[in-house]
Amino acid sequence: MSLIAAKIIVTPTLMWAVSSAARRWGSLVGGLLSGLPLTSAPISIYLAAEQSERFAADAAVGSVEGLGAVTASYLAYAFCAPRMGTVAAILLALGAFVLGGALLHGVIQPGLWLATAIDLPAMALAVALSRTAAEAPARRSRPPRWDMPARLAAATSLVLLVSGLAPHLGPGLSGVLAPVPIISWPLIAFARAQDGVGAALDVVRGSAQGAFGVLAFYVCVHLLLGRVDPVTAYAVSIAASAACVLPWLLARRRPRAA
Fold it and tell me: Which domain holds residue 143?
């Protein structure tokens, strides 16, 4: 199977799985699953296969910086969503991503460990802010027929765009673009349109929780890729990511005290 074919098949399959999980178990679970490296891991694997393992390992540093920009967009959306309309909140959140990426990658250039130190408290703040901002409970509605095809098309288009630009951008900028929330943002937009602000903020909170797993994935990729064989490097990285997300899922399933 060619890489293009893999991108076209894998991305919509993951989007379908996460969207189905969100419909069955709620927007928070959908956001948590979408926060996993479901598209950023394939992008990293594509970069290693198409460019080189060293390219993908260097791109992982940019991805940790880009994850800070993604978290800035979550913070902006959690603050703006209860106060603004759908389009305005999303545009301001995307603006926060661009500004955060420009500062972290273009101006500060913190490197792997300082970027990690910036990301961790920012992600924790995004989880807390999206929880307190969700004033209204999420409502559940039956999605229209075009809903799932639109989600699949949006996610697939974004992953093809990001991976297609990589050879022209180099490892740094390619890494910054890799953690773009390809699945999360369509989920957020559709949740807001169909189920209200509360559902959208649940997706944001789940995505911010899942970002801890994405961070673990990229740190492991940078440390392992090129030092061990690629299959082992990505297997360990994905396992570390899952280990960071599992406690959030278990905490959600634990019954609340009366």
Answer: 3-253
